[in-house]
Amino acid sequence: MKPCRVLIVDDSAVVRQLLTELLGQDPDIEVVGSAADPLLAREKIKRLNPDVLTLDVEMPRMDGLAFLENLMRLRPMPVVMVSSLTERGADVTLQAVALGAVDFVSKPRAGLAQGLSEYAEEICAKVKAAAGARVRPPTTTAQPLLRLDTPVRAPMATRFRTTDRLIAIGASAGGTEALRVVLERMPPDAPAVVLTQHIPGSFSRSFAERLDRHSPMLVREARDGEMILPGHAYLPPGDHHLRVIGDGARWRCRLDPGPPVNRHRPAVDVLFRSVAQSAGANAVAAILTGMGDDGARGLLDLRQAGAATLVQDEATSVVWGMPGAAVRLGAAQEIVPLEAIAARLLALAQV
Questions:
Q1: What are the Cα distances from residue 156, in Å, to 160, 163, 265, 306, 345?
Q2: Does residue 154 lie in a domain region?
Q3: Which of 38, 64, 201, 286 has its CA 20 to 30 A from that of 191?
Q4: Are residues 71 and 185 in the same domain?
């Protein structure tokens, strides 16, 4: 396979040089050029025809979001945003993903060799995943549901008045928008939802607030020990795993600052395994678009515990890494297009 061709767009010469060196260490990546602003980038895209663009959020001469919007309209291509770990950086980056960016990483910081090595591994993996990602937004056309074992049951009326069902969802690359699509289709009295999305710690509050604006449910950052209630969706705060623990006939959130699992904190496997132990057959779980295989083994634990399990289909996934890994492991009972996932989760929660 030919190396993935990358163009780096950043107004900082230091960042351009650092990214060039870090990406250039990977034999599967070729940095074909760099640009200090979007206007220069536009010309280099035409001349160099890169496979992937890394794009700074804030740049001179043209705002990064305006450039991204034009790019997705005129020449759609995979873009990985490089953003600062600030509240404004989080807001702008989430807007960029909504406009079509595949994924995002934080600004590199020169310093400790170990930290820089871990950063290089992350950005190289995300750039290579982006090279094979789908950059067009999912269509809203109805698509068939793929059942892997038993026949599909028809959806039922969505009225929920009990705490005996729990929905668990995990996602990574492309998941910030996929979760929005799912949660905006949930009724305000839906069963409680617990979420894990691979996201920088400083982004979690902005992300929870963004989801809350789009969903009839109440979406919030989880607090350690709080009761899990219907009509609420819980997202772990920055750099914490989210676990579900039993408390009599109810469930509570447990926040865990322990070490990363599958190189992630929060990790989907941590959430799913806790749901398998605490809720078992009372749970319904889904893996959405994402890079890698985090969540696949946890979803298998859930299926073996009697929970209903599904994954997002390849056609509507930005990256079919995590869902595909779950299918190959035999963890998924159903493969479902993104626009149908909310309805399917609600139907399975009533069975």
A1: 11, 18, 36, 20, 11
A2: yes
A3: 201
A4: no
